[in-house]
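Title: Comparing notes on inverse folding

I've been comparing how different people in this forum approach sequence design from structure. To keep things fair, I'm posting one structure and asking everyone to reply with a full sequence. Here's the target:
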């Protein structure tokens, strides 16, 4: 199961059942008959002369269970030796499915113009009304062997498109919609509020335009209810199935939890036979130790004519996941990634015994050493943590360690915070 660990995500191991033996049926059958006879005798189901005598001794010609066990073990050993000594002509090689091919890989360095935000601590607006945010967009695609693939750079967009928007699409959104127009699955990895929903809406619009069924799945009922309201307002012909509530189950677009979709696959629902697209929101739930198997089973059980849109902000090994999809479904799977973060992420310290928050890493990822020193000073004055009177025997740890003013990562900062027993807080 997909658990988020790239080392443990082994989806390329496959063997062919029945190709393990070099024996023919005629060679195996006598041995099977002998073992069945011995097993029957051991359990008292054989001939009368195989039972024990009243004195506990085995009559002449009977089978001792221990001897039978040893003979069965010898047979197994002989079988293994025969397998090792079999001629190459009689040995059958294990069959493996061909590995997917990763191609059409490219990365673009882009700059996005965004509105400046107000500092939440000072409530002061910056002098510039807008700012430039550099970011990267990357694309890869996993293909089955010998697939006739046309690079996305040569794709001709549909005119008119399945859905238009009152704004210009970002580069990663364009790449994802091009994949949908070509009826090829796509995994979109982007931060929260980056615009992944646009890709899902385009897949829904494409299906409705072709009078096909589409299902939107989410991990929790609350999110399903929210998406149902949004999509119903946008498209109209939308239904909801969460187990607690069922609304318009015959709609062309159905919003449901992943467990509901798996249940439909178990029952062989008529809806599944008409599916063209399935959208998996928050696909990183597949690594959940308890519920992840639901996503895995659902993807495996879906019919081969389905195409997929996978959305996630935190999937750790997107390319491996795409290769798995390509391998089990024998269809291309694109991976579109952007590191653009529209929601600023700021890191604060709230020292134990202190009276306020201290911004230590701003939305640009810059470390604020002056604020960090203020947090340490507040901790020392409050008499808590490692700098106060409660830790008289702190020894060499009585003074804060020096930190470089530049080139410090958030991970190192967190490690330092934990070492000093302060409390870290992230807000966005």
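Reply #1:
Here's my take.
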């Amino acid at each position: 199961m997909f658990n988020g660990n790239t080392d443990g995500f082994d989806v390329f191991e496959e063997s062919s059942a029945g190709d393990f033996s070099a024996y023919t049926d005629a060679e195996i059958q006598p041995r099977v008959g002998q073992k069945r006879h011995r097993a029957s005798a051991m359990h008292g189901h054989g001939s009368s002369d195989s039972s024990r005598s009243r004195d506990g001794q085995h009559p002449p010609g009977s089978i001792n269970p221990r001897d039978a066990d040893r003979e069965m073990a010898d047979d197994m050993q002989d079988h293994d030796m025969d397998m090792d000594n079999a001629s190459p002509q009689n040995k059958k090689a294990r069959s493996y499915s061909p590995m997917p091919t990763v191609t059409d890989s490219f990365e673009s360095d882009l700059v996005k113009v965004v509105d400046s935000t107000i500092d939440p601590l000072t409530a002061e607006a910056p002098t510039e009304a807008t700012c430039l945010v550099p970011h990267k967009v990357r694309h890869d695609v996993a293909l089955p062997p010998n697939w006739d693939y046309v690079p996305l750079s040569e794709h001709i967009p549909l005119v008119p498109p399945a859905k238009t928007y009152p704004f210009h699409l970002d580069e990663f959104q364009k790449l994802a919609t091009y994949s949908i127009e070509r009826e090829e699955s796509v995994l979109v990895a982007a931060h929260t509020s980056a615009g992944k929903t646009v890709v899902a809406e385009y897949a829904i619009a494409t299906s409705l335009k072709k009078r096909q069924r589409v299902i939107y799945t989410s991990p929790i009922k609350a999110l399903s209810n929210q998406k149902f309201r949004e999509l119903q307002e946008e498209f109209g012909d939308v239904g909801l199935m969460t187990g607690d509530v069922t609304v318009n189950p015959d709609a062309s677009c159905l919003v449901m939890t992943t467990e509901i979709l798996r249940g439909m696959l178990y029952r062989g629902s008529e809806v599944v036979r008409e599916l063209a697209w399935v959208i998996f929101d928050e696909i990183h739930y597949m690594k959940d130790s308890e519920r992840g198997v639901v996503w895995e089973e659902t993807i495996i059980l879906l019919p081969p004519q389905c195409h997929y849109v996978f959305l996630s902000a935190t999937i750790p090994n997107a390319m491996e996941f795409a290769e798995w999809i390509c391998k089990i479904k024998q269809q291309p799977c694109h991976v579109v990634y952007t590191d653009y973060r529209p929601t600023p992420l700021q890191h604060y310290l709230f020292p134990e015994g202190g009276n306020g928050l201290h911004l230590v890493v701003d939305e640009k990822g810059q470390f604020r050493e002056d604020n960090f020193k203020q947090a340490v000073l507040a901790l020392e004055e409050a008499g808590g943590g490692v700098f106060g009177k409660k830790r008289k025997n702190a020894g060499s740890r009585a003074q804060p360690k020096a930190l470089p003013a530049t080139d410090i990562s958030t991970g190192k900062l967190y490690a330092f915070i934990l070492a000093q027993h302060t409390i870290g807080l992230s807000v966005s």
